[in-house]
Automatic annotation (TrEMBL):
Protein name: WDR34 protein
Subcellular location: Cytoplasm
InterPro entries from the UniProt entry: Dynein_IC, WD40/YVTN_repeat-like_dom_sf, WD40_repeat_dom_sf, WD40_rpt
Keywords: Cytoplasm, Repeat, WD repeat
GO biological process entries: intraciliary transport
SUPFAM superfamilies: WD40 repeat-like
A Pfam family annotated for this UniProt entry: WD40
GO MF entries: dynein heavy chain binding; dynein light chain binding
Superkingdom field: Eukaryota
Species of provenance: Crotophaga sulcirostris
Record's GO cellular component terms: ciliary plasm; cytoplasmic dynein complex
Length: 522
């Protein structure tokens, strides 16, 4: 047999004396200890008591205070009776005094100087020697746009141009890197943001076309355009203007003017098309004549339109500037058809009602006042005022009720390209010039004229660009009234911060405007 082998034997069993002893005592047979007794004790006292932190006023202290407040009424009455006549005399003198006329308390921080906040440009446009032809602020007042093109000699038709925008509230603003750059195949002559939809901006091209861009669309911002049809302008478009619709979310009508003599009204249609809704035409023979004014030529020739401005108080009334040197008051309610204007899909009407005293050359800009006389009589039309400027270097201040200007101011020896009325100061306007008058500022290109101070010279002239670099356009910011943007022939846009003198209305300023508006010649 082998010495070693596998074998199974029964297991061993040992009784537990501990379990037996515990079982005999009737105690639980468990390896856990017995239940632990616990008790809760609050750490906060359950009773509270208020204690005053101020000491009680003693009776003596109260009596002392009452003694200090005692007044000798007999002596006080005697004093007031002695000085009564003198005080009343001085109060009456102060009440009648005009020493503080024009003074208005202002608790806001005062900005005493005019500063250039930003100098914006697009290097690619400057490399092509393109000029800033127009500037516009969007509805929020935070974004400024400019159009690039040419207003002097050049191959306008084939030259590529741009529309650029900058958000001035954006952190890390790069003045030479616009937030949006839109390439345009033709020179852009004018630009206008929509008054309530911040991303919509319209432009007029040298080709005669009108285009609307949506700046929120980066890839393909063109949303509407007129295309080149029989209705399209045949000359460059020099101004576009939005006329809002009363219906919400409706962009309204878009007006355009051109040196082809037509004023066209566009509406949107499906498919990204702008369709002609209405139109007007300026024909020399249909311009109203006055014995005081030089007569227009008796012909059916078109009168080129360069600028347009609507009355803010009567949507039927607008003013245009024309190449012949005149400003014309017009009406949207005109019913007379324009002479021999074939090719249009809608009848064109003759809108001119009154011709104003002419400038010495073409009128480049007109601007209706956003203010008018406070007293309005239903039987008498409001005396709306407007400004005009042109190649003679003069600004004319007109009432719409008379042909002769109320004020004529020589600001420059060269052209004035743009004039704009302040949106917050009734007696302030700005003008953009080709060169400043040596009497005021030899290199001044942006002139601020305060009629409250003088109707003969600007209150301030700002140097915008180098010599022989005219300022072509400027716009006040209606949302942020201290900002004024101006574009020049060097391809730059300067954003000026105006001082408090130019942004705060004086207490009698409206009265002075009323006086100007009332100076109508019999």
């Amino acid at each position: 047999a082998a010495m070693f082998g596998d074998r199974t034997v029964p297991g061993a069993h040992l009784e537990s004396l501990w379990r037996g002893a515990r079982g005999a005592l009737g105690e639980p047979k468990s390896c856990q200890t017995g239940k632990i007794s616990t008790a809760e004790a609050a750490v906060q006292a359950y009773t509270t008591q208020d204690a005053g932190v101020q000491t009680d006023q003693s009776g003596n202290a109260g009596r002392d205070f009452q003694q200090e407040a005692q007044v000798d009424y007999a002596n006080l009455l005697s004093f007031l009776q002695r000085v009564e006549d003198a005080v009343v005399k001085e109060l009456n003198k102060n009440w009648k005094s005009r020493a503080f006329d024009g003074f208005e308390v202002n608790w806001t921080d005062q900005n005493e100087t005019v500063l250039c906040l930003h100098t914006l440009s697009y290097p690619a446009a400057q490399e092509q020697n393109l000029q800033v032809t127009s500037v516009s602020w969007n509805a929020t007042g935070s974004v400024v746009a400019c159009s690039y093109g040419r207003l002097d000699d050049g191959d306008w038709n084939t030259e590529k141009s741009y529309v650029c925008t900058w958000n001035l509230d954006r952190r890390g603003l790069n003045p030479q890197r616009p937030d949006l750059v839109v390439d345009v195949p033709s020179s852009v002559m004018c630009l206008a943001f929509h008054p309530s939809q911040p991303s919509l901006v319209a432009g007029g091209l040298f080709s005669g076309e009108v285009v609307v861009w949506d700046t929120s669309r980066r890839e393909d911002p063109v949303i509407w355009r007129t295309g080149m049809t029989d209705d399209t302008h045949t000359d460059p478009v020099y101004q576009v203007t939005w006329v809002p619709d009363t219906k919400p979310r409706n962009p309204g009508q878009l007006w355009s003017v051109s040196t082809d003599g037509k004023i066209l009204v566009w509406r949107e249609e499906r498919g990204g098309r702008l369709a002609l809704a209405a139109g007007f035409a300026m024909v020399a023979r249909q311009i109203p004549r006055s014995t005081q004014l030089k007569k227009f030529a008796q012909s059916e020739a078109a009168v080129g339109v360069t600028s347009l401005s609507f009355s803010p108080f009567d949507p039927r009334v607008f003013v245009v500037g024309v190449e012949g040197g005149y400003s014309l008051r017009c009406s949207t309610a005109a019913e007379v058809l324009a002479l021999h204007r074939p090719g249009s899909s809608v009848p064109l009407r003759a809108p001119a009602e009154l011709a104003f005293s002419p400038h010495g050359g073409p009128v480049y800009s007109v601007s209706c006042s956003p203010f008018h006389r406070q007293l309005f009589l239903a039987s008498f039309p409001p005396r709306n005022l407007f400004l005009s400027c042109g190649t003679d270097g003069q600004v004319h201040l007109h009432s719409m009720l008379q042909a002769e200007p109320l004020v004529s101011l020589q600001l420059s020896k060269k052209y004035l390209f743009c004039v704009r009325w302040s949106p917050v100061r009734p007696l302030l306007f700005a003008a953009a010039s080709g060169e400043g008058d040596e009497r005021f500022c030899p290199a001044g290109d942006v002139h601020l004229v305060d009629l409250e101070k003088s109707s003969q010279k600007p209150a301030l002239s700002l140097t915008q660009a180098a010599a022989e670099r005219p300022v072509y356009c400027l716009e006040f910011n209606s949302r942020q009234s201290r900002l004024l943007a101006a574009g020049d022939a060097a391809g730059t846009v300067r954003v000026w911060q105006l001082s408090s003198d130019f942004t705060e209305q004086g207490p009698r300023e409206m009265n002075r405007l009323e006086q100007l508006a009332s100076e109508i010649m019999d």
